[in-house]
Design goal:
Layout: H1 3-13, H2 16-35, H3 42-59, H4 69-98, H5 106-110, E1 114-120, H6 124-137, E2 141-147, E3 150-157, H7 160-181, H8 185-192, E4 213-214, E5 221-228, E6 232-240, E7 243-262, E8 268-278, E9 286-291, E10 296-298, E11 301-310, E12 314-320, E13 338-341, E14 344-352, E15 356-358, E16 366-368, E17 372-378, E18 384-389, E19 394-396, E20 399-406, E21 415-420, H9 428-437, H10 440-452, H11 462-494, H12 497-525, H13 536-552, E22 560-567, E23 570-578, H14 582-601, E24 605-614, E25 617-626, H15 630-650
Parallel strand pairs: 4-7
Antiparallel strand pairs: 1-25, 2-3, 3-24, 5-23, 6-7, 7-8, 8-9, 10-11, 11-23, 12-22, 13-14, 14-17, 15-16, 17-18, 19-20, 20-21, 24-25
Helix pairs in contact: 1-4, 2-4, 4-7, 6-15, 7-14, 9-12, 10-11, 10-12, 11-12, 11-13
């Protein structure tokens, strides 16, 4: 590229016209982003604007202005333009800040607007002492140049006014870079390269493909997740275009409690959540209560109290199997969370502890129609049935079970999975057992301990014990995915019929030992002494828990549900953000304030005092200039002139 072309391009990028144009474009984008609600579901925009305007606005990316490609491009050009401007002007400004202009000539000083000539009877040296004290009193820094007998004093103050130009422009660069960091720029680039794709299906988080999943290393995001009381999540969902992306988190968020206060009319008044951050990097879990405008910040992640809703109240239902190969099962269903059961998917869409409607009398009173919940069970072919029923914990064969539902669509029915309750009628023990069973790291540890505790372990080598542990892990994985049936199917496929019974007994024995050791570990975590014999309840609980896990994957057939009672569990709606750019935006804003303050309140002022020996006296030429605030400088110049005149008179 010719040198002249580079110079022209460089001058264009650093021009004031380009900077103003970009700033106006950003202001217009900000207006659009304020008027049009951002990041809403596409159907809402279709209903609001109509199909034609929806398609037009969508093509312009007006529903996601601050993360749109054109807005980020404008920010990028503004950063480039401002950087070029700073690069071009910084050397000159720094030279001006350090230049006192002590080599100015008399003729140049006489051309200044502010000037006055005085006569004093004192010598040049005597006047230097007076002038130095006067300039220091007015907070001027000065230098002097002596040319034989004559002396020129060059003084200035307010150099920060010139630096304010650099501060304000650097602030714009920093703020824009922060905006680019938080503007999903890496996400846009990854989408353009085909590395990610938006997921539009309503499927469980575990079935979301990797191409729609973002790792915990994602630099910037704003995601949402609903977590029920007593539940936890290590992921969140980013609403993106016409679907969503799954965002993984490097820690788990456990909701210990959720509280909400209502007005007498039933409208929510305030709500808050007791959260527990579970992170292996922490010596102990981090506990904190959050509420609206009082978030929790941890490791660069900020967790806001965003909303609330039903968290899939613990449904206590007596379920009658519709097929002979199914048993009563306990399911705890959280609203809007999915569970796999026997090749089918349950999606709980809504639970209402009470349905408030206007009273039939029409006298502005409201009555509750009682609790209700809707749920769907989705089959492999995509079809589903919709149910409307009630929830409560039930007592099954002398033992308490919790129920939870699954569904495929909002308009389709529900099915359930039984989970045994512990001695305090809580689901925590079973969930701990089930979740630990699905945790590869936990299973690996328990399998190694189990393999080392067998009768023949002392005579076995490390490699043999490792092989046994790996075999146990494989059995546990098969058991979780398909229960005993899947293990039996594997035996049937790999062995002849004569050996199947014998090998099945061995597999069951090995698996039971692994599961028992895992269960004992859960009890020890609860503070129960496992050195003694287990109580009848704990023994029976283990059997029920294993049976529930065994049948979990079969939860795909319609069930007849008889309402017994319900336990309401509310969900807290959390918004999780990671905004590293804010650590640039905040200092950038502060730097901008400092820069504007310096430019407007620290204007640069210069004074020159030329002293010339005239016989026994001294001729004095006072001259000055100011870039801004001429009115204030007029008063200061007049005051300095009067003070010099008084000193001259005294001299």
């Amino acid at each position: 590229m010719p040198q002249s072309t580079i110079r022209i391009l460089f001058r264009f990028l650093g021009s004031m016209n380009l900077a103003i144009t970009l700033l106006v474009a950003i202001a217009i984008a900000a207006v659009i982003g304020t008027v049009v609600r951002q990041n809403q579901p596409y159907p809402d925009y279709v209903l609001k604007f109509g199909p034609f305007w929806f398609e037009l606005f969508k093509s312009l990316d007006l529903f996601n202005v601050y993360s749109s490609a054109w807005f980020l491009t404008i920010l990028g050009f503004l950063v480039l333009s401002t950087s070029v401007c700073v690069y071009r002007n910084l050397p000159r400004i720094l030279r001006d800040v350090n230049d006192y202009r002590e080599h100015s000539q008399r003729n140049a000083l006489l051309k200044l607007e502010h000037r006055v000539q005085l006569e004093t009877a004192g010598s040049v040296r005597d006047n230097l002492t007076v002038i130095a004290a006067l300039l220091k009193a007015h907070r001027y820094n000065f230098r002097q140049r002596s040319d034989g007998v004559d002396v020129l004093i060059a003084a200035k103050k307010g150099s920060g006014g010139r630096l304010g130009y650099i501060f304000s422009h650097a602030a714009i660069i920093v703020i824009c870079i922060g905006g680019l960091m938080d503007g999903n720029l890496p996400l846009k680039i990854a989408e353009w390269r085909g590395k990610i794709a938006v997921e539009t299906r309503r499927i469980p988080a575990g079935e979301i493909p990797p191409i729609s999943t973002l790792s915990a290393a994602n630099l910037s995001f704003r995601a949402n997740v609903d977590i029920a009381e007593g539940g936890q999540a290590d992921l969140a969902f980013i609403d993106y275009k016409n679907g969503y992306l799954l965002q993984k988190l490097p820690f788990a968020i456990y909701v210990d409690d959720f509280r909400i206060e209502h007005y007498p009319s039933g409208q929510p008044k305030s709500f808050e959540s007791d959260l527990v951050i579970i992170d292996p990097a922490l010596s102990e879990p981090l506990k904190q209560t959050i509420s609206v405008n009082h978030p929790l910040t941890y490791q660069g992640y900020t967790i806001y109290q965003n909303s609330f809703g039903d968290g899939g109240s613990r449904l206590n239902l007596k379920a009658w199997p519709m097929s002979a190969n199914q048993l009563v099962a306990d399911l705890q269903a959280t609203v809007k969370q999915f569970t796999q059961a026997g090749g089918q998917q349950l999606e709980i869409s809504d639970f209402r502890p009470f349905n408030v409607n206007p009273a039939p009398s029409g006298d502005k009173k409201f009555i509750s129609l009682g609790p209700s919940f809707q749920y769907k069970l989705r089959r492999p072919d995509g079809t589903a049935n919709e149910y409307l029923t009630y929830m409560q914990p039930i007592l099954q064969e002398g033992r308490w079970f919790y129920l939870s539902g699954m569904r495929a669509k909002v308009s389709e029915p529900f099915n359930y999975w039984f989970m045994p309750a512990d001695s305090e009628k809580r689901l925590s023990r079973f969930m701990a057992f089930y979740q630990a069973l699905r945790n590869p790291e936990v299973i690996k540890t328990i399998a190694m301990k189990t393999a080392a505790s067998t009768e023949n372990s002392k005579q076995s080598s490390d490699q043999e014990r490792l092989a046994v542990a790996q075999f146990m892990q494989s059995l546990a994985g098969q058991f979780v995915e398909g229960g005993y049936e899947k293990i039996s199917a594997g035996i049937d496929q790999s062995l002849e019929e004569g050996r199947r019974q014998e090998i099945s007994q061995v597999y069951v024995t090995v698996l039971q030992r692994l599961l028992k050791n895992l269960y004992l570990e859960i009890l020890r975590d609860e503070g129960i002494d496992t050195g003694k014999s287990l109580t009848e309840f704990d023994t029976q609980f283990f059997s029920d828990a294993v049976e529930a896990v065994n049948l979990a994957h079969f939860y795909n057939a319609p069930l007849f549900l008889e309402l017994k009672s319900f336990q309401h569990i509310e969900a807290t709606g959390l918004q999780i953000t990671r905004s590293p750019g804010k650590w640039l935006v905040f200092p950038g804003c502060l730097l901008l304030v400092v820069g504007v303050f310096c430019m407007f309140y620290l204007p640069q002022r210069r004074l020159w005092i030329l002293l010339e020996a005239r016989g026994t006296g001294t001729a004095m030429l006072l001259a000055g200039s100011a870039l801004r605030n001429r009115y204030d400088f007029d008063k200061e110049f007049e005051l300095i002139k009067q003070q010099l005149t008084q000193n001259a008179t005294f001299a």
